[in-house]
# Entry
Amino acid sequence: MIILNVPGRGAFQFEHLVSDVNGTLAVDGALLPGVAERLKAVQEHLTLHLLTADTHGKQAIIDQQLGVTAVRVKGGGEAGQKAEFVRNLGAEKVIALGQGANDALMLREAALGICVLSPEGTAVEALLAADIVVPDVTTALDLLLNPTRLVASLRR
# Structure
């Protein structure tokens, strides 16, 4: 669990990290450098949930590398499926990571939505739906490993 008290926003008790895979954690179906190690460290504090349409057909390899099984979202209505997943966990306990148009609702629904700028591009909808925008996924994961850094960006 990550507990944060953010001036002007209140207290947060995060229990889950929900992340898109392709474009967010991986490019062309391969994890970005440094992601696996950071995710393993984050899992000491948060339960990791991966959501993917498995665009590149390589999710089984990523699952094995991370020791998790991603939830496959069905083609069509991906954005709604991702947002519903966050709601079902209890959105007030969720940090969400994403960069695609189909991540925007998930980012908005979560108590904390983090949009990453990606080598595959970042959708404007995701950018506008997020609470924080970071230059890459390793920066996002480093924020979760050093959560007091979030306070400076989130305080009002």
About this structure: DSSP finds seven helices and ten strands in the chain.
